[in-house]
Task: structure prediction
Amino acid sequence: MWWVSYRGEGKAGIENIGVFEDDGAPRKKHPLLLDPSPDAHPLHIARGFAQVGDDLYIANAWRRDSHIARYHRCGDTFRFADLVVTSKQVSAMIHPFDVELGDDGRIYVSCQDTNTVLAILPATRKPAPVAIHLRKSFPKGNFLPGTLVASSQGSLPECGDHSPLDVPAPQGLGVVLDVHGRPRHSVRGIIVHRRNLYVADEAGDVVKIFELPSGRLLAHIKARKLREPVHLILHGETLYIGAPGSGSIFAYDIPKESPRGQLDAYVVIDGKLKAPSGFAVGPDGDFYVAERFKQRVRRFSATGKKKGTFIEGLPDIPEFLIYVPDRP
Result:
């Protein structure tokens, strides 16, 4: 089956995750994944989510209530379990976009409004120490607690009066501000794989690879048409990159040795998408890509050939899309 998270903003926004059968039809029983409960903490603007066994971790992106919540499976749905961490415990976690659970026991969160990737210790709900590489490279620098990957511009509105140090690119993440001075293009999707962190630097038109837990920049993935990368997925040993700026999907085959230097991605779907957001590889090997403003999911072959619309008429703008095999 397929899970789709929605934009969730405005009166008509869907504050839940839609569930669709393998053939794209809405699930008749429990078409929404999260079971509403009067005891549940409100979900506002769900973004990235990660499933670990029977637990589902969701990044709640609302600026007034930024948090990571945990839901637990109950039959065909998931019920709210607890708040894993909130911006009260980790002040830099404002407007989170994506969440990853590393095999080192830490939670990694990309935060759009502080333009950082944070490392969080779930047992204590506190930020992990600032990355060793940042401390060594900028011994007198002020960093937001938990910073693993820093922003190239530290003085952003949500950072308050104690703005962190600017960390120049390429180590620091690019950022483009809107007319109100808020980040318009900033950090987006993240993937943790083999002790490395892959980060979509939307403003920099690049995917950067950082070493865990030091935070040292190892490599960056580029391509001629790779513009504004947002969503990242890992399928086997291949990293796939969704680039709304060019309407394309790119791929990078991860080598056995740790990546270094400038790396080249290759095109899988070339400029055939309108505002692509979440995407996934289906059980048939095809690509399924959500288009935000057309509110649909399109299907492509493994070589990028169009195979029509898979789901259309979604009730809200789609954000994240994953395929989840049925339980045995």
